[in-house]
UniProtKB/TrEMBL annotation:
Pfam families: NAD_binding_7, TP_methylase
Alphabetical list of PANTHER family matching this protein: S-ADENOSYL-L-METHIONINE-DEPENDENT UROPORPHYRINOGEN III METHYLTRANSFERASE, CHLOROPLASTIC, SIROHEME SYNTHASE-RELATED
Protein name: Siroheme synthase CysG
Pathway: Porphyrin-containing compound metabolism; siroheme biosynthesis; sirohydrochlorin from precorrin-2: step 1/1; Porphyrin-containing compound metabolism; siroheme biosynthesis; precorrin-2 from uroporphyrinogen III: step 1/1
Family: Belongs to the precorrin methyltransferase family.
Active site positions: D253 (proton acceptor), K275 (proton donor)
């Protein structure tokens, strides 16, 4: 180990930096998080530094450093991005007794600044002794993802709970409390608390958690209705990942891709309640019962739904089943198929001067093909994302043309949006049913009415239907 990691107390102590450009800015942003007295020497400082000086966040001296300028400084940063000037200022600072760092020059530095994950008062410092900055950044990104965003708040408030938590029996019960506090119910309790009175609000929210542990009550069950996105695991939210990682039971639809199910905790019970368009399926009331049964047994349940759970996801029926029994639930949004499909074809769902609103439609509902305000949709420039629209294509085409929609209105079908087997079918209202039939699509498909793939836009009205549109983008 060539560098020994320590945390230096900087409150009220002097830190000096020479430099006024980008390197100086980067270091100052970090240093301003501390309570150090910062002095910057720079003959021509960047405007940000001038503004920070005016705001009283640091002292700015607009000239080059001279002997004696670093007197009593604990740390010195040479950030002039000029080897000669850096060597000169370092010599001054060392003579004045400061430990020195030369930015981007490991060899000449007496100390280096690590990559930092900041959940003040919890700070994680990552160093590779300059060997692998890329690795340090990857570790940092990984930790940023893992550690709850409000970990700092939990830690600050946690100090106040330390004494009270000592009333829990030593060992397992106390460990369970802290693990729950930092990684399960705790983050959930402080999620969304505003910064202004964060600590009081968090303390109140966390009191209940402690009393429950003190009373040795079982952790109550909970169901999170989680959006799994359109299929690409990278389109999952961080919240979804964390919940999957902590789930006791995962109840999922058929559309969820295997790569996403892989992310669930190894011990989790996986229940497929797959439902398909017109095919056989577990009934909604069976699903409701299944959720209620597991939550009542105390499980942390993830009810995983494709896309966003609030879009054609039968969310309300399940929420009502849960609330009717007084059970706790939360909803975690996901990326809906419409968002993934337009992203694929390089278009927006809304666009200035084309459409100021967009409709999310379903091709069929419980009674069969679904009816909509066809006259409104038939007007030029309208856009709709039609879910479950493949089988209803002929019906939709008929209704829209009857209400005067132009036969050459662009329509794009995106099958398996965001997945490896994604396909794009550029079509028009006139040819939609025939094009869909010819394409033999088996996967979930979203029909984008009123939108052509960006690259094919100019070629309208006869768009290529050979699935090449996507590659041309
Ligand atoms: N809650 C989901 C929609 C469920 S309804 C969401 O927000 O996306 C199921 C329909 O969604 C499918 O019939 C299909 O029209 C659409 N769909 C879901 N995933 C899709 C995908 N990856 N690509 C294209 N369409 C998809």
């Amino acid at each position: 180990m060539q560098h020994f990691p320590i945390f230096v107390a900087l409150a009220g102590r002097r830190v000096v930096l020479s430099g006024g450009g980008d390197a100086a800015l980067a270091k100052l942003r970090l240093l301003m998080k501390t309570e150090a007295h910062l002095t910057v020497f720079a003959p021509s400082p960047a405007p940000e530094i001038v503004a920070w000086a005016e705001a009283g966040r640091l002292r700015l001296v607009e000239r080059a450093m001279e002997p004696g300028d670093a007197t009593c400084a604990v740390l010195f940063y040479a950030a002039d991005e000029n080897a000669e000037e850096d060597a000169r200022t370092v010599a001054i600072a060392r003579a004045d007794g400061a430990l020195t760092n030369t930015v981007d020059n490991l060899g000449d530095s007496q100390f280096i600044t690590p990559a930092i994950v900041d959940r003040d008062p919890v700070t994680v410092a990552i160093g590779t002794e300059g060997a692998a900055p890329v690795l340090a950044r990857a570790i940092k990104a990984d930790l940023e993802e893992r550690l709850p965003a409000r970990l700092g708040l939990l830690a600050r408030v946690g100090k106040a709970f330390r004494k009270a938590a000592d009333a829990l029996p030593f060992g397992r019960p106390r460990r369970d409390f802290w693990s729950d506090y930092y990684f399960a119910d705790g983050p959930r309790a402080v999620d969304g608390i505003e910064d202004a009175d964060a600590e009081d609000a968090a303390r109140a929210a966390l009191d209940g958690l402690l009393s429950r542990h003190l009373a040795a009550e079982e952790r109550p069950g909970h169901v999170a209705f989680v959006g799994a996105g359109p299929g690409d695991p990278e389109l999952l939210t961080l919240k979804a990942r964390k919940l999957l990682d902590a789930a006791d039971v995962v109840i999922h639809d058929r559309l969820i891709s295997p790569e996403i199910l892989e992310l669930a905790r190894r011990e989790a019970e996986m229940l497929d309640v797959g439902k398909q368009g017109f095919g056989p399926s577990a009934s909604q009331s069976d699903i409701n019962e299944l959720i209620v049964k597991h939550v009542e047994a105390g499980a942390q349940v993830v009810r995983l739904k494709s896309g966003d759970p609030t879009v054609f996801g039968r969310l309300d029926e399940e929420v009502e089943a849960v609330t009717a029994r007084g059970l706790s639930y939360s909803v975690v949004p996901g990326i809906t198929a419409a968002s993934a499909a337009v992203a694929t074809i390089g278009q927006s769902l809304t666009k200035r001067e084309r459409n100021a609103s967009v409709r999310l439609l379903t091709g069929h509902d419980m009674k069969g093909f679904a009816d909509h305000d066809w006259a409104a949709l038939a007007r030029p420039g309208e856009v709709a994302a039609i879910y479950m629209g493949k089988k209803a294509a002929r019906f939709i085409q008929g209704r829209l043309m009857m209400h005067g929609a132009a036969p050459d209105t662009p329509v794009t079908v995106v099958e398996n949006a965001s997945r490896a087997d994604q396909r794009v079918l550029g079509s028009t209202l006139a040819t939609l049913p025939a094009d869909i039939a010819a394409a033999e699509m088996n996967g979930p498909a979203l029909v984008l009415y009123g939108l052509a793939p960006r690259a094919a836009e100019t070629a309208l009205p006869s768009i290529d239907t050979s699935f090449k549109a996507q590659e041309a983008l």
